[in-house]
Every structure is written in structure tokens, then in C-alpha cells.
Amino acid sequence: MKGGYHAKLLWIDLTNRRTQVVPLGSRLAADYIGGRGLGTRILYDRTAPGADPLSPATPLIFAAGPLNGTSAPLAGRYEVVTRSPLTGTVLSSNSGGRFAVDLKQAGYDAVVIEGAADAPCIIWIDDGQVEFRDASHLWGADTHETTERIRAETHPKAGVACIGPAGEQGVLFASVMNDRDRAAGRGGAGAVMGAKRLKALVVHGSQRTPVADPDGFAQAREAARVAIAEHPVTKNSLKEFGTAVLVHLINEYGGLPTRNFQEGYFPDAASISGETIKETIFEKSVGCANCFVACGRATRTSHHSGEGPEYETVWALGPMCGVRDLETIAEANYRCNELGMDTITAGSTIACAMELWERGAFDSAMQAQIMADLGTDLSFGNGQAMRRCVELMGRREGIGALLAEGSARLAARFGFPDLSMSVKGLEIPAYDPRAFRAMGLAFATSSRGGCHLRAYMIGPEALATPGSVDRFSAAGKAELVKLYQDLSSVIDSMGACIFTSFALNPDHYARLLETVTGVERTTGEMLAAGERIWNLERLFNLREGFTRADDTLPLRILQEGLPGGHSKAQPVDLEPMLAAYYRVREWDEEGRPTPALLDRLGLG
Q: For the chain, which residues make up each domain, given as ranges?
């Protein structure tokens, strides 16, 4: 193996506190690249069909990519891979900061954790050496306190990926948090970590990622750097205002979901926009490893400080709940990070509860309990209620114990299952499919449920990058979604940031990958690796009982038009796009990969 890898996987049995170093074969690396792809292959092979995501046997995999630890631009992302306790689907959750580089420098390409400890513990890896340490004194501590205390006990520059009270209490959308405020957020990997009684994975080291072709890599890196530095989105918008720069744009398109997707336009968007964040609570820009875009925001309110809120968080805790007060949203975001929870599912679940409240779904006893827990009602626009719900769900107290199950279980429990704005049980993010058709198809077919990062169709549908497409047309959307899904699989597996896709084309990625690893492959062969990863995720979900019926959108999206705003769009006619997508994917009419496709991809 020439470059990009240490060629070592660390296997950890928490039950017996044993470790084993397993070689990473060159074929496995070539076929699945690293990160998301490698983690998914391991998960598929090591998970028994039907296994409970929270059982000791379910693997929890921290996987780096071949670009991590190199000087490739924006190569600071890693993956946490497991089976989602929220959805039951395959789960690969991506996070930034510096942890990806710290993990790689510790000497391993991936850490695979199985079993469960008999008491709270941390795993401390220092230049390849593994130590199990007691974490009883940290159980119950939030993620910030945990990070600082662990660094004081290990190394001041150690990478710490930890859980907060939400992960310990089994909140089904608990996050794994690293670098204090960076989240492997979606799908509940933090709950899996909590079930293993693992408070933190802590890594440190000095081992460099080898580069097979230094001269060729330098040229590829510079070409990528120039493209990113010159693209308007990465040069100006994200750099100046962070991801929340999208608030005004998506709102003007009429696609900013408001009050649990009842509307697509939020009249008070100006109060929560990226521009307003810059003018009011912004302190400084924050970037991941090797990132000169620095789209993260360090912020401070009258009472607290932290990172964010990002665009998705601003929306989920803001317009989705009808809340317009920026300080309230920011402080709820800080608490989600400290408690260790996905802000998208947290906000969407609260919004679902608000609509249940306004529809009279709660009986008098439940209404009384909610009023007692919150000190107020649960109507849309009530920032106090939203903020209090965050605290209660993070600790599974009072009404928070129900909210901690996510919106799909909450809505079904109270007889209104269609009020959960989710796909496969994962709440869909801040882009209304009625305003963005390709984004809707991407949500419906996403391997981990409602997710924008599996294929970020807002690029061509709203930002006109790399080119503009008709956002209301179904024409060509199946091909476009497939391309973006395959490419995102590659990007996540390399360890790069998805935002590079605004500026880079597939040839850029292929050249970076080839020069780092020394494995010669065409751009088409690289994309075939992404296609292989995507189909393996599909096979995992099929094995767990998911069918064509799960490739859908919330009934509201399929049956109700947008009532106002700038779209006034019709419901999404999903079936023709889905049928075309299956054809493009070479799947049968039920969404199963054909034998010929599996043979071509080496998955037969």
C-alpha cells in the first residue's frame, strides 16, 4: 500500500477490554476508499441481520479517509458508522473540526468498537498505544466539561470525541461531539456510544499520512485550492456569513419550511439570517483542519457562548418552530451541543409536538403535564417552550422523555403519524421539496433517511452551481441525483468537506485521490467506487426490511401545496421521478439492485 493509509484497523472489544490490530488490505482500501465507504463495509460484514442498534454486538466505527492528515484543502472530516437507533437504517454520520487528523495521527485508519463496558470508560489512544480508563467521574458531565477534563488527564491537544447526557440517557438522536461543538449529529450514534458505556474516544499521535506521489499531489492540491478560493460560494458567501447565509435565499425561493412544513416562507427571516448573526452575536470565524473557508461561527449571546448556530440549526430551532428570536435560538443550539443532540431532529420533533398541541392531540392530563414541565404552552412561536424542551429531552425528563424518541414515534403515539416530517424516520432538513424537486428525490432515496448531505441538490437548484436547473421540473433529476449521491459517497470516504463540491469537479477528486494513494484510476472508476458504496448501503437497508415503500416523502409534501410565499408550489409528484431513478440506478421496480449491477460492482 503506497500512500493515504497506515494500513491498520484497530479492533476493540469493550466487553473483555481487548484490542487487536488488523491489516487494512489494499483491495478493501481501493474498493471503499476509507471513511464512510470503509466503515459501511465493516458494518455490513460485522452486523447480524436484525441486530438491535443498541445491543453490545452492534459495531461503532470511527473511520478516517486517505486525505486526512495530508495538506489537501478542506480535508478535515471523518465518519462515525453504525446502525441508527432512530431509524434502523445504515448510519454514517460526518463531523469536522480536527478530530479526523488526530485520529489519523494516532496511527489507525479506523477504530472498530464492539461489545459494551461494565462501567463508564474512555478509550485513550496515544501513538498507537491503547489504554482503557475509568470515566465514572465524567458520567453526567456535558460535552464541554468532558472535553476539558479529559484533555487535562491525557494530553492538552488530544482529540476528544465524546457524548453528553443525551447519549448516556439513550436519546435516539444523540450526537457524538468532538472539538467541543462539532457533531457527528444525525441518526443517534451518540446513543449507540452511550449503550456501550463509552464516554469518549480520545486520540493523539505524531504519525504522518504518507503521500505516494508528492509532486503530483502538490499540483492536484494547488488546482483544488485555487478552484475553492475563486468560487463565489466558498470565496465569499460561506466565508463572510457562514452557512446561515442561506436563510434569505431559501426563504425568497419560498422553500424555507415553517411551522412544521405548513408553509415555505418565514416573514421574520431577517431576524435570524447569517447577516444578522454577523451583526449581532458573531465573535470570529472557525474552520476545520486545513480549511481556509472557515464557515463556522464562534458566537456569544447575552448569557452564553459557543459555536453556531449553523443554517440547519437556525431553521430547526427557528422557523420550523415559528421562533424568531436569535438569542433564544443560539442558546438552544449551545445546549444541544453541550447535551450532545442533533439540532435538526431536536427542532423538528419540537415542531411536531407544537402542531400536535395546536391540533388538540394531547388529552387534558398530558396538556397539564406539558404546562407543568414547560411553565407555558407549546404553541408555535413560543421560544421559551422550545428552549425548555431542549433541556428536558437532553436529559429524558418529563415531556422530554417522549420527545427523546424523535418525531416519528411521537406523532404515531398520539395518533397523527403524518405530522412527522421525516423519511425512514429521519427528519428532513431545511429545504421544502415542493420548492426543490431534485432535493425531494434525494430525501426520498437517501440511505440514512431524510438527509440533504447525501446529495446536495440545492447547488444546482438554488445556487446555480455548477449550473442552474429548473427546480420545479422532474426532467433529468434522476440522473443528477445519482451523480451527486455517488460523488458524495466518494467525498465522505476521502475525508473531504462536502462544500468542496461547490468548486471542484470529479476530476479534481480523482487526481487528489490518485496522487495521495498511488492507485491509478480514472474519474469514472472513482465514481464507480462511490456507486459501490451507495449500493452497499442499499443492500444493508434491504437486509433490514426496508422496501420501495420507504422511498417516499411525508404525506404533507405529497398531498398539500405550499399556501404562500414565493413558490406557491404544488405537491410533489414523486412516483415518476422515483421510477426513473430506479432505472438509472439499475435497480428493479422494487428498488433492489439487479444481479448484473452487483456483479459489475463486485457486490454479487
A: 8-204, 239-423, 433-502+521-601
